[in-house]
Each structure stands twice: as structure tokens, then as C-alpha cells.
């Protein structure tokens, strides 16, 4: 083919050169294009395989690290048990370990136990004691002179093999002693390097590691001294079993008990190939390798991931590449043949060849574009799936009728149902975790997401497979198609059990603290009261002034504690309504009388628009008082001297208007207006938030609690009512309340008062 | 039977007990002070006061246990009791009411004057 490049020898005519040369050129050119396409597809495939490998390695590595953290967490849980009671019996330890469900929750756990610290001089006495109380043949072993001993005294599960650990003192072994020393220094979990975890119990040699966690004493005499160690013994095979399962022969895992510089056969502690998986052929050289090194609980570990033939094979796009090559070859041949046949007319042949070449180029471009799109989609999908699966919150995708199409891994962990049980079922049905809230709740939810096509946010009570009920913060979003119809729903739910427990503990704490605070406060109040009233002799005017200041500060503190107690009762759900016949005007005048001092001091003009002939309503008088009291005292407090405050009340029939809104049912309506500082726009959506105080009034009035409006809103909503306001900064504010008469008649505190 | 000017204060907090007893003594009452429920019960049955001011949260015998035992006594079943408490737990108050004690004051929210005024009113009524 090089002939075309040479000058014409005398025996060859220019025509015969063209007849051979041009088709050959067309063929070579076409082939070159095809080869270009082929190599570019191969390169993309390469890229994709590497990404897949990296994702697999990252996923596995984080699963392993998380697992070690989880184990450390179990040990810390054990320490919590010791923190809670100074002496933990064998039965308590057993109950604790059983509650962890070690067989299911802690794969690889061989034993979890407690070694007690015994000083050398107490050793024989304590041995004798333990022989009497725990194990008749208890002995510290191996025996030897050591400053202290930490023989295992509890070991669970109490298998025959594990019971052989009783009395074993890990300080006798340098590797174990080293881990204990690190645990002492950090006062946290420390682990040994790879050891034979059955060496002490005499089982089959099993590579694994032991974790130690010091327990510090809290009872008198043992204060802040280490009284023992919680230990967990784990086998590598057990720890890795399901992680290894999940890599599906796509990546090879080697774990070394050393830093990356010293990895080698001596430090190899776990080999994926040797744990029941087919090793790749001897001549297989992995294309990708990733090293990961980390210091965990006092030891440096290195994990090496290699790609396996399955991963390299699955992601290859050889078929597509070959297709491109074959198609290119055939097209090139075709073009060359045509060129040859049609060369009698040089122009036509040339045009045709060019046309074919263009077509070939187009075909390559089309092919590349099509492949690029497909690859991008698979890639994106893989990334999203990885992200969704590693999320801690439950993510569920359903079709437009609520049938589950996808559920991420957290769904399994949170609800206890397996993906297989979930897919294809109706979400929210009793077969799964839902269906235990009132029917109206679900009806409202469906109305929001399906009819109104809006995002639903709220607290949902669910039930795990185990039967345990829990609360979740949920967001359910409808995803619409081009026509605006619901294509599917995405539900993300966050298990709020822990948050709610903490909330409850916090609230109980506030409630208890408030009771405790009230007693000394009562003493301050009463003694200052006696001083002021002259029970202990007359005070000088100045003394009287100061004691009065003490007294009014102390009264304010009492009010604050009352408000805190109300808030904690609201948060605890123990805010009980006790309805009786009440006259709202009596309550309003009572409140105004209480506020008289401040009203007169600030020379505020009060207009009491409560019609005297208002019929009595059935409501809790304390709650109604709190609403009116908080609104009026806010109005007076946040209005400058010489301002105006107005109160209006009315009994409305359903549909009548109040403050621009129509009452949904027969209601008691209240409004409190003032000519005060007003609520700045930036604060308007926060004024009902607990402990929130707007910037402008925080500067002007320093003694507010930030609890008043929160309480008012909670009480109002508790009776099914609503509260809103209109306000302009510098001009004033008007609060409107509508309380349905029916709602205020209800007694008790609904459990889901918080879920609105 | 009942001593018309005697008031029994059952209160475990020494300071609050002192404040109450001084205020009441100054107002002319004979005040007996008890620091827990069982001490209070002994003194109540021995001295038969006109009125008992009773704290609820106390060590050993608390206010509710005191009331239960008091109501089993022939004199004690009609004795007049006012609860003075800093616990506003509704169920505790409800239980006390079932035991025939219909008034209660939150200590931190009420002045000695308010309590004294109520004591005056009650002691003026025929026993």
C-alpha cells in the first residue's frame, strides 16, 4: 500500500494507481476511524471499572470501620452498666449481654466479659472470695508475680469453651498487656493486634483481636480508680463474614496488622481468598489496587483492596467496542469496494468515498453519544443508589398508589422488615410499619401528597417488626411527570426515638429542677415578706426599698419557674384540661387587676372590650387565664409609656369573621391589640418558638422569658384552635385567637399533641 | 375536743416551718411544728389542732400517707387540712382531695399574708 506514496514507475499508468490507491485509502481511513471509536469506548469502560472498584473499596472499608466502632459502642454500653450501679452481678452482666442480641447484632463476637482489677496484696483473699461466691475452682492464671491482676470473672455467652477463660489474666501476655496499657492511657477502647483469640480457652487456633475498655469506679473507696476492664473477643472471619459476602467476589481484601510500609505475609491477618472464596488464578494480575490505612483503637491497620476478574469483567464494554470495530471494518470495506467499482468516473467515486466516510464518522459519533448517555445514566444511578443505601434515614420510593418500588438499607435497620418483605407492599399498611395512627391522619396525608400534590412533613408513629412503636420525622414528596400527574412518591423518615427520649429526659429534669427551686424560693419570699411587713421591727425607708427589690425579683423568679413548669408539662404531654363553666370577662378583669401596677406605672390606656353579657363557656379556666394573661401582659410590657392596649372578646358562629379569618366552628374569639414596639418582619415566623425573643424587645425589656407565646400557642392548638397576629414595627401588634367551643370541652391531653 | 387556737404545721423544710410558725404565732395562734408525717401524726392526735397545714413531699411518711392514716382516726377523719406544696402534680392534689383536703397553696406562688388570711377565715367558722 506504500505504492501510492512512491513516484510513478514507467510501467504503471496513473489510472491503475487510482484504482488501487483510492479504495485502499478509503479503507484505511475508515478503519482508522473505527479503531479510534473502539479505543475511546475501551477507555471509557476502563474509567467506569475504576470508579466501580473505588466505590466497592470505599463501601467495604467504611463497613469495616463502622463495624469496629459499633463493637466499641457495645463495650461502652457495658461500661454504662457499671457506671449506673457500683456492683454488677453475673446475672446483671448476663442480662445486659443478652439484651445486645450478640448472635444477630455482633457478628464475630466470641465472648464479651469483665476482668476485675485485683492488687497483688489482695490476690489470695479475693481469689478465696470469688471461689466462695462465683466459681468453686476460681484461680488467677497463669500465676506469676505481677503488681496487679485482671482475671476474667464474667464471660458471656457461658459456653464450655468460654468458661475456660474464667480466671485468665491478660496481663500475663505481652500483646494483651500492651492493649490494656493503651486503654489505660486513653481511658477508651483499645484493641490488640491480630492474636489467636482461642489461645486462652484452648479452642482451634482462630485469628482475631481483643478489645479492652477500662471501667472506673464511682463508689466510695474506688473513686476514679480503674476497677476492671470490659473485653470483647472477636474472630476476623466472623467480623468479616457478611462484609465479605457483600463484595460478591468483585474485590479481594487483605487486612494487615501493620502500617502500609510493613505489610507482608507476616502481618497478614485476614485474606478474603482463604475465607471460602475462590482465589483468582495464579496468573491473574489485578488491574486496580487501593490501600487504606487507619489507626483504630490504638492499632494501625492496613487494608488492601484488589480488583477481581468478576469486577473487571462485569464492567467491560468489550462487546460494544467490538461491535464498533466490526461495523467500522464492514463499512470501510463497503466503501472501498464501492470506490473501486465506481472508479471509472473519478469524481463520482471520490464523492461516494467522501459520502461513505462522512457516514462512517457520523456513525462513530452516534455510537459514542449513545454509549456516553447510557454510561452516564448507569453511573448516576449507581451513585444515587450508593448514597441512598448508606444514608442513616429511611428512604422509600413508591408508585403513585403507594406500592413500594425501592427501600434503602436503613429501612431494614429501622423497621426490622427485610427488603424482600417490603417491596411490592403498600406503604403505610399494617403489614409493614405503618397503619397505627388514626385513620384521619392517613387521609389527611394522602390528601396533601396526592390531591394537593404538596410535600408532607410531620411526625409519624410507626411500628417495627418487633412490635415496638416509635416516632419518626417524615417528609413525603410527590414526584410529578410532565403532565403534572403523580409519577411516584419519595418518603424520607428519620427515626426520632433517641431525640424523643432525650427530650423527655430534659423535660422531666426541668420539671424536677423547678420543684426543687421553689422550696428555697418560698423561704426567700416569706422571710422578705415578713421583713417588709415589719414583723421583725420597722425598717428604714432605704432598707425597705432594697428588701422590696429583693422581694419583687424573687417573685419574678417564681413566675419564671411557673412558666418553665407549664412548658415542661406541655412538652411531656401531661398538660391536662379540666373544663368547667367559665365567664371569659371575669377572667379578663382578673388579669387586668393583676396587671394594674404596671399599667398605672406606664400610664397605659386600657380598653376592655369584653361584653358583660357574654354567656359562660365550658373551658379550663386555668388555660383560658394563661392565654389572656400572657397576651395582655405582653401587650402592656411591649408598649411604651402612654400607649394603648385593647382587649376584645366575642362568641362567634361558624363562618363569622375574626381578624380577617372565618371561624371554622362555633368559637370563642379573643383579640389583644397594642400600640407598642411591634414585631419586626424578620421575627414574624419565630415569635411562637420556645425561648425566642425578638431583637428589638430583648433590648427594651430585659425580663421576658420567651415562653409566653409558646405556651399560648400550645394551649390554643391543644383545644383545636388557632392563633395569629398582624403587626407593624413601631406601630403595634394585634393577636387574634379562635377557640372552638367543642375543643375546649375536651378533657385530658391527647398523646399526639406534639405531632401537629 | 379540738383546741380552737392550735395550728399544726407539718413541714420538713426547717426554714419554711420557721417562717410559717412565726407568722402564725405573731397572729396569736398556738403553733406546733412537726418535721415529717409520722411526727405530725403523733402530734395531731395528741394535740387535736384546729387546723393542719400539711406539706406533701416529705421524707419517710409523706403528706398523702399522713392524710390516709389521719382519716382512719375518729377525731382525725374530720380534721381540717390545708395542703401547702411546691408540687403542682394534678394527680397528687386530686388524691389529697379524695382524702378530704380541699384546699391547697403553692408555696412559691403565695404570700404568708394570703395563707394567714385563709387560716383566719377557716378558724372563724364553727369547727
Beta-strand residue fraction of chain B: 15-25%
The secondary structure category of chain A is alpha+beta
Can you summarize the main beta sheet of chain B? Answer: 5 strands, parallel
Query: Which outline of chain A best applies?
Result: flat
Number of distinct beta strands of chain A: 26
Distance between the termini of chain B: 10 Å
- Termini separation of chain A comes to 83 Å
Strand fraction of chain A = 15-25%
Overall average pLDDT of chain A: 82
Question: Which tags fit this structure?
Answer:
heterodimer, A: 756 residues, alpha+beta, 6-stranded antiparallel β-sheet, 5-stranded antiparallel β-sheet, 46% helix, flat, B: alpha/beta, 5-stranded parallel β-sheet, 43% helix
Summarize the structure.
The complex is a heterodimer of chains A (756) and B (127). With 756 residues, chain A is α+β, with helices and mostly antiparallel strands.
Your description of this structure?
The complex is a heterodimer of chains A (756) and B (127). Chain A is α+β, with helices and mostly antiparallel strands and 756 residues long. In chain A, helix 1 packs across helix 7 (236-246) and helix 9 (318-341) runs antiparallel to helix 10 (346-390). Mean pLDDT of chain A is 82; it is low at 1-13 and 749-756. Chain B contains five helices and five strands, in the order βαβαβαβαβα. In chain B, strands 2-1-3-4-5 form a five-stranded parallel β-sheet, with helices on both faces. Chain B starts with a strand and ends with a helix. The model of chain B has no long low-confidence stretch (mean pLDDT 86). Classes of the chains: A alpha+beta (756), B alpha/beta (127). Chain A binds chain B through residues 515, 518-523, 525-527, 529-530, 533, 535, 558, 561-562, 565, 574, 576, 578, and chain B through 13, 15-16, 19-20, 22-23, 26, 57, 86-88, 90, 106-109, 111-113.
Amino acid at each position: 500500500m506504500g505504492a501510492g506514496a512512491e513516484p510513478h514507475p514507467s510501467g504503471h499508468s496513473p489510472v491503475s494507481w487510482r484504482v488501487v490507491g483510492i479504495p485502499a485509502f478509503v479503507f484505511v481511513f475508515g478503519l482508522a476511524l473505527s479503531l479510534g471509536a473502539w479505543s475511546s469506548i475501551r477507555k471509557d469502560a476502563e474509567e467506569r471499572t475504576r470508579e466501580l472498584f473505588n466505590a466497592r473499596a470505599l463501601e467495604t472499608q467504611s463497613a469495616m470501620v463502622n463495624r469496629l466502632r459499633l463493637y466499641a459502642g457495645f463495650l461502652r454500653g457495658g461500661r454504662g452498666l457499671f457506671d449506673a450501679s457500683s456492683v454488677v452481678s453475673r446475672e446483671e452482666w448476663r442480662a445486659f449481654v443478652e439484651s445486645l442480641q450478640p448472635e444477630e447484632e455482633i457478628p464475630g463476637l466470641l465472648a464479651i466479659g469483665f476482668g476485675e482489677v485485683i492488687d497483688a496484696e489482695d490476690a489470695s483473699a479475693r481469689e478465696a472470695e470469688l471461689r466462695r461466691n462465683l466459681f468453686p475452682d476460681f484461680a488467677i492464671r497463669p500465676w506469676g508475680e505481677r503488681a496487679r491482676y485482671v482475671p476474667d470473672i464474667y464471660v458471656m455467652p457461658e459456653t464450655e469453651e468460654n468458661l475456660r477463660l474464667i480466671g485468665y489474666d491478660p496481663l500475663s501476655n505481652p500483646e494483651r498487656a500492651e492493649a490494656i496499657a493503651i486503654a489505660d492511657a486513653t481511658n477508651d477502647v483499645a484493641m490488640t493486634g491480630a492474636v489467636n483469640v482461642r489461645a486462652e480457652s484452648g479452642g482451634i487456633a482462630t485469628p482475631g483481636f481483643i478489645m479492652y475498655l477500662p471501667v472506673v469506679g464511682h463508689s466510695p473507696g474506688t473513686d476514679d480508680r480503674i476497677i476492671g476492664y470490659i473485653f470483647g473477643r472477636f474472630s476476623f472471619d466472623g467480623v468479616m463474614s457478611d462484609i465479605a459476602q457483600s463484595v460478591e467476589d468483585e474485590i479481594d481484601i487483605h487486612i494487615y496488622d501493620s502500617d502500609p510500609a510493613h505489610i507482608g505475609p507476616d502481618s497478614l491477618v485476614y485474606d478474603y481468598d482463604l475465607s471460602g472464596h475462590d482465589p483468582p488464578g495464579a496468573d491473574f494480575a489485578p488491574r486496580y489496587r487501593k490501600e487504606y490505612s487507619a489507626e483504630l483503637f490504638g492499632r494501625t491497620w492496613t487494608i488492601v483492596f484488589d480488583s477481581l476478574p468478576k469486577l473487571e469483567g462485569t464492567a467491560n464494554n468489550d462487546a460494544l467496542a467490538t461491535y464498533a470495530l466490526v461495523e467500522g471494518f464492514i463499512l470501510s470495506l463497503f466503501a472501498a469496494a464501492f470506490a473501486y467499482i465506481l472508479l471509472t468516473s473519478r469524481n463520482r467515486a471520490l464523492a461516494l468515498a467522501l459520502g461513505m466516510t462522512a457516514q462512517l464518522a457520523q456513525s462513530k459519533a452516534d455510537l459514542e453519544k449513545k454509549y456516553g448517555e447510557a454510561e452516564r445514566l448507569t453511573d448516576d444511578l449507581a451513585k444515587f443508589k450508593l448514597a441512598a443505601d448508606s444514608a442513616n434515614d429511611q428512604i422509600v420510593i413508591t408508585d403513585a398508589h403507594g406500592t413500594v418500588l425501592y427501600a434503602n438499607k436503613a429501612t431494614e435497620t429501622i423497621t426490622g422488615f427485610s427488603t424482600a418483605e417490603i417491596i411490592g407492599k403498600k406503604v403505610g399498611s399494617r403489614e409493614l410499619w405503618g397503619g397505627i395512627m388514626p385513620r384521619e391522619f392517613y387521609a389527611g396525608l394522602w390528601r396533601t401528597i396526592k390531591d394537593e400534590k404538596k410535600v408532607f412533613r410531620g411526625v409519624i408513629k410507626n411500628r417495627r417488626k418487633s412490635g415496638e412503636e416509635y416516632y419518626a420525622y417524615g417528609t413525603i414528596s410527590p414526584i410529578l411527570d410532565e403532565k403534572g400527574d403523580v409519577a411516584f412518591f419519595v418518603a424520607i423518615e428519620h427515626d426520632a426515638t433517641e431525640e424523643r427520649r432525650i427530650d423527655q429526659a430534659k423535660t422531666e429534669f426541668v420539671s424536677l429542677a423547678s420543684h426543687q427551686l421553689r422550696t428555697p424560693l418560698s423561704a426567700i419570699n416569706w422571710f422578705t415578706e415578713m421583713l417588709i411587713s415589719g414583723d421583725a421591727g420597722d425598717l428604714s425607708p432605704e432598707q425597705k426599698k432594697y428588701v422590696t427589690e429583693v422581694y419583687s425579683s424573687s417573685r419574678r423568679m417564681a413566675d419564671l419557674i411557673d412558666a418553665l413548669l407549664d412548658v415542661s408539662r406541655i412538652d411531656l404531654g401531661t398538660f391536662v384540661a379540666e373544663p368547667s363553666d367559665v365567664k371569659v370577662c371575669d377572667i379578663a378583669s382578673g388579669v387586668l387587676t393583676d396587671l394594674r401596677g404596671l399599667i398605672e406605672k406606664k400610664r397605659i390606656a386600657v380598653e376592655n372590650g369584653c361584653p358583660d353579657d357574654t354567656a359562660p363557656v365550658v373551658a379550663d379556666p386555668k388555660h383560658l387565664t394563661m392565654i389572656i394573661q400572657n397576651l395582655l401582659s405582653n401587650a402592656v410590657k411591649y408598649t411604651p409609656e402612654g400607649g394603648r392596649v385593647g382587649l376584645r372578646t366575642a362568641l362567634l358562629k361558624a363562618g363569622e369573621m375574626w381578624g380577617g379569618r372565618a371561624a371554622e366552628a362555633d368559637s370563642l374569639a379573643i383579640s389583644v391589640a397594642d400600640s407598642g414596639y411591634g414585631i419586626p418582619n424578620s421575627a414574624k415566623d419565630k415569635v411562637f418558638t420556645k425561648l425566642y425573643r425578638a431583637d428589638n424587645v430583648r433590648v427594651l425589656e430585659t425580663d421576658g422569658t420567651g415562653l409566653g407565646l409558646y405556651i399560648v400557642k400550645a394551649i390554643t392548638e391543644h383545644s383545636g384552635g388557632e392563633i395569629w397576629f398582624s403587626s407593624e414595627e413601631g406601630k403595634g401588634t394585634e393577636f387574634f385567637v379562635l377557640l372552638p367551643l367543642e375543643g375546649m370541652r375536651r378533657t385530658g391531653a391527647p398523646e399526639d399533641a406534639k405531632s401537629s | 375536743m379540738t383546741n380552737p387556737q392550735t395550728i399544726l404545721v407539718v413541714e420538713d423544710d426547717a426554714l419554711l416551718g420557721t417562717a410559717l410558725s412565726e407568722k402564725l404565732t405573731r397572729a396569736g395562734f398556738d403553733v406546733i411544728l412537726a418535721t415529717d408525717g409520722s411526727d405530725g401524726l403523733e402530734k395531731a392526735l395528741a394535740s387535736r389542732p384546729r387546723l393542719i397545714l400539711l406539706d406533701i413531699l416529705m421524707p419517710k411518711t409523706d403528706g398523702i400517707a399522713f392524710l390516709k392514716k389521719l382519716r382512719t382516726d375518729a377525731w382525725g377523719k374530720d380534721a381540717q387540712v390545708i395542703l401547702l406544696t411546691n408540687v403542682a402534680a394534678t394527680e397528687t392534689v386530686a388524691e389529697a382531695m379524695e382524702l378530704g383536703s380541699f384546699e391547697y397553696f403553692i408555696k412559691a406562688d403565695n404570700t404568708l399574708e394570703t395563707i394567714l388570711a385563709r387560716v383566719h377565715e377557716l378558724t372563724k367558722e364553727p369547727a
